[in-house]
Amino acid sequence: MIISGKAAVAGVMGWPVSHSKSPRLHGFWLDHYGIDGTYIPMAVTPDEFETAVRGMKALGMKGCNVTVPHKENALRLADVATERAKKIGAANTLIVQDDGSILADNTDGYGFYENLIQGAPGWDATKGAAVVLGAGGAARAVIVALIEAGVPEIRLINRTSARADNLASELDGNITVVDWASRELALAECNLLCNTTTLGMTGQALLEIDIFDLPKTALVNDIVYAPLVTNLLDKAMAHGCETVDGIGMLLHQARPGFKAWFGKDPEVSDDLRDYVLADG
Ligand code: ATR
């Protein structure tokens, strides 16, 4: 794609950043919509992150995505932040506003929920409890989004229960912490099972969970997308549950940033999914 001297410039800051799928994802949309813009990977060390963030205004950039290990710092350094970024305690999207100030947003929870409703349009978040496995940064974004969507009860389960206790005490909502050893008991009568741990990811151990007690009406989602069909999703399909895979969370979380920087709310299409997944 050839750009002009007026091109809008955005990108992703991470350390490392070479694994990021975001340049490919935003590049697809820029090309698809014929937008005069570019989205570049920026390998920024933690020591230089603040200088890099401040430099965006100086460079006339529209903003950037932020990935590991900069997400908490991004929120701290921004001039203003959205409510959801404050609740999650981290930012993944920075927007240089017209007056030069930097707005921090966190679109991970948004991307998570948009993926669920695109993948399972008939599913109703308000119909019952959600079981969330994991208590890291991803779990925090997922829980904030589920509470916002009206889920009446969250059953939070993590190998290290102290981490789950901390997370539950920091978030407003009906959150019950269940021991990792009792995870199967927590599945009874739930409406959603979501894995936010790294278990099941290529190169990691499998997620061991017996889903015999999981209602067949429950939706099952894994935020792991490599492999696309994790052992949890495979088991859930065999059990008769509807499933939504994790790649859509990555695709949908990118939409608000793209809209702010390039002026278009982009579509998450099958072509986009295939293109991003073809990246190995
Ligand atoms: P992220 O920010 O992406 O959520 P994280 O903070 O590293 O990543 O969290 C990883 C999650 O996977 C945690 O909930 C972790 O459990 P612990 O808090 O007990 O570490 C979970 N996890 C990773 N490996 C695990 C394993 N072998 N068994 C159970 N849970 C595991």
Can you walk me through this structure?
This protein has helices spanning 22-32, 49-58, 71-77, 83-88, 108-119, 137-148, 161-170, 231-239, 247-253, 255-262, 270-277; strands spanning 8-14, 37-43, 63-66, 80-81, 93-96, 102-105, 129-133, 154-158, 175-179, 190-195, 219-222, 242-244. By secondary structure, the chain is of the alpha/beta class. The strands form 2 sheets. The chain has a 6-stranded mixed beta sheet with strand order 2-1-3-5-6-4, sandwiched between helices. Strands 9-8-7-10-11-12 form a 6-stranded parallel beta sheet, sandwiched between helices. Strand 11 (219-222), helix 8 and strand 12 form a beta-alpha-beta unit. The longest helix has 12 residues, at 108-119. The two termini are 22 Å apart.
Query: What is the general shape?
Result: globular
Helix content: 25-40%
Radius of gyration over all CA atoms, rounded = 19 Å
Low-confidence sequence ranges: none
Features:
single chain, 280 residues, alpha/beta, six-stranded mixed sheet, six-stranded parallel sheet, 12 strands, globular, binds 2'-monophosphoadenosine-5'-diphosphate
Would you spell out the secondary-structure blueprint of this structure?
Blueprint lengths: L7 E7 L7 H11 L4 E7 L5 H10 L4 E4 L4 H7 L2 E2 L1 H6 L4 E4 L5 E4 L2 H12 L9 E5 L3 H12 L5 E5 L2 H10 L4 E5 L10 E6 L23 E4 L8 H9 L2 E3 L2 H7 L1 H8 L7 H8 L3
Parallel strand pairs: 1-2, 1-3, 4-6, 7-8, 7-10, 8-9, 10-11, 11-12
Antiparallel strand pairs: 3-5, 5-6
Helix pairs in contact: 5-6, 5-9
The chain binds 2'-monophosphoadenosine-5'-diphosphate.
